[in-house]
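Inputs:
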Amino acid sequence: MVHVGFVGNANYFEMLDFALGFAGIDLCGDDGALLGHWPGQSPQEADDAAWEFEDIRRQLMPQAPAERQ
Amino acid sequence: MQVPAEPRATSHELRALRGPGGSSPLVARGSKLLSWAALCVVCLGALAGCTSLLERAKNPFLFAGLYLLDRVEDALEVVDVGVTVSEEPGVAFYGSFASLTPVGVGYVDGHFVGLGGGQLLGLGTRTPGRTRFYLSAVGMLAWGYEELGWQTFDPKNLASLHCQDVGLPGMLTPPHGRPGPAPS
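Outputs:
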């Protein structure tokens, strides 16, 4: 059986990133990358920072424990 | 006693005073404003981080192509509008205004058909027509937590997802998620 849902979302920060992108500014750090990172942060540091949410995830979703890779 | 009015300079005299290359005060003010705007853009660029185009582009043609591609991808990331399709049942009744009022719960692990996550109908991905999509979110008005995955991700690997606290306290206090999906 197929389950269907609807998604509607506007990303305000991405709007700013799009506008500033014409001037060569990459606010979201996502030019040429699937996932972005903050200015002054390397992609590796952004990956590491994501794991800071591990505790929240454990409490909210105990059925899907995170696996650090 | 009547003071004689100072003689006004004629337009010919003013033009002569400015010299051959002189401009009007309005133009001078405009160019000054433009200079400040350019300086602000440069400063913002230095603060915010410039595009990685110079590292990726090996020649001017590739530079132009990648520049346009980046702008298209940025444009596609502005909104997410579409339909989720999953074989496994999911529950999603979740909404938030500008990431400030998260309310509801949502769990979807399936595919997305539409415009969103920097893609349109899965074009250019391994699954044309649709793309992999993952949402796990809970919102309690003042605070909420969202996990969002597009295209290539592993739900067990937090580094491959957009993880973020939402709601005003959540957005202001660490940990902070990646830039992009908040505020939304």
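Remarks. Chain A touches chain B through 56 residues (CB under 8 Å). The mean pLDDT of chain A is 84.
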